[in-house]
Design goal:
By secondary structure, the protein is α+β, with helices and mostly antiparallel strands. It contains 8 helices and 8 strands; from the N terminus they run αααβαβββββαββααα.
Length: 209
Amino acid sequence: MLPVVHDRSPLVRLRRRLLVEPPAVTLPTAPPREDLLGAACAECARQGTCCCEVAEGEKLATLSFRDVRRIEEASGLAEHRFVEREELDPLERLAYETFRPLYRGLFVGNVRLGLKPRRGACVFLERGRGCRLPPEAKPLACRLYPFDYNLAGELTLVDAPHCLAINEACSERELLRMFGTSRRQLRALRKQTLEEAAEHARLLRHHAG
């Protein structure tokens, strides 16, 4: 099942599956938000609620062991300062694997590692400016956001009702530009995510054995 995308977004109203179907239709476009191009996350953090903030019961990005090592090296923080360990029952694991198949290997052993919230937000969120981590140290899930891939390997959008870029974008091209990325870069991130998730699963199975 494809992720549900926020209905108020102009991008979704125009074409609900814009990122899955070939762009065969010329979309009516509004003037692009030049202030958002390549800087959507920072602008969202300045304006209010963003993906780095969570309500009670919500979770931040899922992490692989590689993600954790990159963050440790970039931030100088020990793992326990930014990692939250979540024990999953079999049904919770199945739900994660069903709706986020790209990260399937990260739930082996019914354990999920995620970014730790502090006062309702990611520990690396700097209010009004966005993430303090350098781009190369951000978790792969954060680098992909708000894009995702379904089980068929098709590019989709996550359910992100507060995402400023999704709400403002009038075309796939503009949305990609807002995040300073491209389909080619997203495919590379998908490949890296699958490889690191598989490695994560192997390590968990090895330690469990």
